[in-house]
């Protein structure tokens, strides 16, 4: 039963569902009926649904039929009216067709106009869109055009700025256009082009700087010279005003706005044209000659491109190479001062540029780099100067070189470079300068001594007298009292030599200027150099004159007198040096002048030369001696050569009146001794193998003439018989033979008070042998005479005894 109820309930539900579906079909649009029908087929009761659907269709057909039957008459009426309307509609259609034809005919032009209007509107819209796009693209094109113009005019840094704006601001707005892609692709190439062109400008700048370094250095050194001149003026009078630019002012960057620089300045290679200015006009600053904009531009460009380090390394490397070239001196630099000046100008120009770069750029060069370059330059410069200055033989050139080095050092010191080593090197050059001065003054002294007449200076007026006294410090009251004309005791070379010594001192002083030396150092330098002049140069010159072969006794006497006066003038030279250096001689470590020693040595050499010269003159006269050693005649006068010799000696010693007494006495004694010795040698020489008593008598007359000369006192100051003692050996020997006093000689030999004390037995034997040979030869038959035989025996006996004395003496 329950199962029956359940079946009944299910059939009711199915019937209700089918009813719902039918209502949906009736009320739903045909297009949307698909889902409703699917629900029927999804179920299992579609057979029953179809039955119900057929039932529902039949019901609706019956209702339609009923409705049609109810409205049939109205339908017929409607058909009748419709048929009437069809005729009217045909008329209306014809009218509409006709109207349409007319309208089409009439509206054809309008349609054409409308098409034209449509095209115009389309073009207008396209133009407007194009204008909008062009307005967006024009700034890009303008910037690109500006970039090209800047590249063409070589304004590379502004071009780089324009390129940045173009890349980051303008191109992103129109990046979808093809021309923009081309521009984007060209940007790296443009950057490289700017980089390469700016580097090319830098290379041109570096090359131009290298070529014009000497001009830059010359200008800087002129400025330093002007500053020194101004400083000297300031020391003398207050400074009213100055147009001098400070170093700070010199470091003004000349290209104030790189982006606004003119094309002309952009193309400048680095050196500005400056006309030569007059000496009285202000010299332009060294930096005023240089346009550093290529360096600044290249630095900015590489900094913007992120390659600053590359640029710094390249710049420093190139400048180091240029420094090595600048520091290489020309091989002939030592020949002229201009060679040194050009060399210094180039070095100064190089470091002025580097110093300016240091102060006007941020890190392109640093102080360590500059100091490294300067150390290298300093060592190479000093080495070059040492080498080339050693070739200089002209003191004026060495002095000019010293002044140039001082100016070079002062110029670089203004820019902060240490220059102490240069001044130390100048002290080395000072020694070389002294050597060149000594060589020059050696020639000066030689010319003075060669051109001197070695005669006392005659003066005929007070004016001439004062002129000589003004040149040489000389005071002689007795000479002042003498009337004109009168003579100074010295010759011309005394004041000339004295003045040249002072000129030498002045020349030494010139070198010490601007070397930052103390007065004591200057004084010491002058005194040492002057000592070298006196002890070496002047001394050698005097010695050369004294040792000349053709020098006469008169000249030697005058040299002794001259050196005596020069010796006295040494104290005035001391005072002269003290006055110019303001260093008192009493100061500790003050060097003393050795002039006194120099002139004493020269005087002693002249004295020795006088003695030697006198002896040579005596020898020359003795060469004229022509004794007949075999004569038997007894002469009654001295030989002619000896008379002439004595006359010469008298006239010579008469000239010695101005010499110091000891010099004249020594010369006279030396001459007499040499004469006596020479006569003794003449008597005993081996070539005279035989001589007669008559020859001895003639020789005795000559010796007596000599003794008479000695007794006459040719030179004052000798005691009574002092000068005669020079001939005592000859006198005793001749007396022994002429008086034939052998018994006394042999008896008294060896006693202190012996009459023939000065007769040497060897000398006596030699002379006796000559007389014995003569006796034998000339008296071959004398042996038959008793007296002659006795005399011969006596000679043999005396000779034997003399030999015995000689043997006993040697034993």
Automatic annotation (TrEMBL):
Q: What does this protein do?
A: Component of the exocyst complex involved in the docking of exocytic vesicles with fusion sites on the plasma membrane.
Q: Which Pfam families match?
A: EXOC6_Sec15_N, Sec15_C
Picking any one GO biological process from the record gives:
Golgi to plasma membrane transport
**UniProt xrefs under InterPro entries:** EXOC6/Sec15, EXOC6/Sec15_C, EXOC6/Sec15_C_dom1, EXOC6_Sec15_N, EXOC6PINT-1/Sec15/Tip20_C_dom2
Report residue spans for region: Disordered. 260-280
User: What gene is behind this protein?
Assistant: EXOC6B
Give a yes or no for keyword Transport in this entry: yes
| GO CC terms | exocyst; plasma membrane
**What is the name of the protein in this document?**
Exocyst complex component
The keyword Transport belongs to this UniProt entry's keyword annotation = yes
């Amino acid at each position: 039963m329950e199962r029956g109820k359940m079946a009944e309930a299910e059939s009711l539900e199915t019937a209700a569902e089918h009813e719902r579906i039918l209502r949906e079909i009736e009320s739903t649009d045909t297009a949307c009926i698909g889902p409703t029908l699917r629900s029927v087929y999804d179920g299992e009761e579609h057979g029953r649904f179809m039955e119900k659907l057929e039932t529902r269709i039949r019901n609706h057909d019956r209702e339609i039929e009923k409705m049609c039957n109810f409205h049939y008459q109205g339908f017929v009426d409607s058909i009748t009216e419709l048929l009437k309307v069809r005729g009217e509609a045909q008329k209306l259609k014809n009218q509409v067709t006709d109207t349409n034809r007319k309208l089409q005919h009439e509206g054809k032009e309008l349609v054409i106009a409308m098409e034209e209007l449509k095209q115009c509107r389309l073009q207008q819209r396209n133009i407007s869109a194009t204008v909008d796009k062009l307005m967006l693209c024009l700034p890009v094109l303008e910037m690109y055009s500006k970039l090209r113009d800047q590249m063409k005019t070589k304004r590379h840094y502004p071009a780089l700025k324009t390129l940045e704006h173009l890349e980051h601001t303008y191109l992103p707005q129109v990046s979808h256009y093809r021309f923009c892609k081309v521009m984007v692709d060209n940007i790296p190439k443009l950057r490289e082009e700017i980089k390469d062109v700016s580097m090319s400008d830098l290379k041109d700048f570096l090359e131009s700087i290298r070529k014009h370094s000497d001009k830059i250095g010359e200008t800087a050194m002129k400025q330093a010279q002007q500053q020194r001149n101004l400083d000297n003026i300031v020391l003398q009078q207050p400074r009213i005003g100055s147009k001098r630019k400070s170093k700070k002012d010199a470091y003004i960057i000349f290209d104030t706005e790189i982006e606004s620089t003119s094309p002309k300045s952009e193309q400048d290679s680095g050196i500005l044209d400056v006309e030569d200015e007059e000496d009285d006009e202000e010299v332009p600053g060294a930096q005023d000659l240089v346009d550093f904009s290529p360096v600044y531009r290249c630095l900015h460009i590489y900094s913007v491109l992120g390659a600053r380090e590359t640029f710094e390394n390249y710049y420093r490397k190139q400048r180091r190479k240029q420094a090595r070239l600048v520091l290489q001196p020309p091989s002939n630099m030592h020949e002229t001062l201009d060679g040194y000046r050009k060399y210094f100008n180039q070095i100064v120009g190089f470091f002025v540029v580097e110093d300016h770069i240091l102060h006007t750029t941020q890190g392109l060069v640093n102080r360590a780099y500059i100091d490294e370059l300067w150390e290298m330059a300093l060592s190479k410069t000093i080495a070059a100067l040492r080498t080339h200055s050693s070739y200089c033989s002209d003191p004026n050139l060495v002095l000019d070189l010293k002044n140039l080095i001082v100016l070079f050092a002062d110029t670089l010191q203004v820019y902060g470079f240490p220059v102490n080593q240069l001044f130390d090197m100048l002290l080395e050059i000072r020694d070389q300068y002294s050597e060149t001065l000594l060589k020059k003054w050696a020639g000066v002294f030689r010319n003075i001594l060669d051109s001197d007449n070695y005669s006392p200076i005659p003066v005929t007026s007070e004016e001439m007298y004062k002129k000589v006294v003004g040149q040489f410090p000389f005071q002689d009251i007795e000479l002042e009292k003498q009337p004109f004309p009168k003579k100074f005791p010295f010759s011309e070379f005394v004041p000339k030599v004295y003045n040249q010594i002072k000129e030498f001192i002045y020349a030494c002083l010139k070198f010490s200027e601007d070397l930052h030396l103390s007065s004591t150092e200057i004084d010491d330098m002058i005194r040492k150099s002057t000592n070298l002049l006196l002890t070496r140069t002047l001394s050698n010159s005097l010695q050369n004159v004294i040792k000349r072969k053709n020098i006469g006794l008169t000249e030697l006497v005058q040299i002794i007198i001259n050196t005596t006066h020069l010796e006295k003038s040494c104290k005035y030279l001391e005072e002269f040096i003290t006055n110019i250096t303001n260093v008192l001689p009493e100061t500790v470590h003050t060097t003393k002048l050795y002039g006194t020693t120099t002139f004493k040595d020269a005087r002693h050499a002249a004295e020795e030369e006088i003695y030697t010269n006198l002896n040579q003159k005596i020898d020359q006269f003795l060469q004229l001696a022509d004794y007949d050693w075999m004569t038997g005649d007894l002469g009654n006068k001295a030989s002619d050569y000896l008379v002439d010799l004595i006359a010469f000696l008298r006239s010579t010693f008469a000239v010695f009146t101005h010499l110091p007494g000891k010099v004249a006495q020594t010369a006279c004694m030396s001459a007499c001794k040499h004469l006596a010795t020479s006569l003794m040698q003449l008597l005993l020489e081996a070539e005279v193998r035989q001589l007669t008593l008559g020859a001895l008598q003639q020789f005795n007359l000559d010796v007596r003439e000599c003794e008479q000369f000695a007794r006459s006192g040719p030179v004052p100051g000798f005691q009574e018989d002092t000068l005669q003692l020079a001939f005592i050996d000859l006198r005793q020997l001749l007396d022994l033979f002429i008086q034939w006093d052998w018994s006394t000689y042999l008896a008294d030999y060896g006693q202190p008070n012996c009459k023939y004390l000065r007769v040497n037995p060897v000398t006596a034997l030699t002379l006796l042998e000559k007389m014995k040979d003569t006796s034998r030869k000339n008296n071959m038959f004398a042996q038959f005479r008793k007296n002659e035989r006795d005399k011969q025996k006596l000679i043999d006996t005396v000779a034997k005894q003399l030999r015995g004395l000689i043997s006993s003496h040697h034993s």
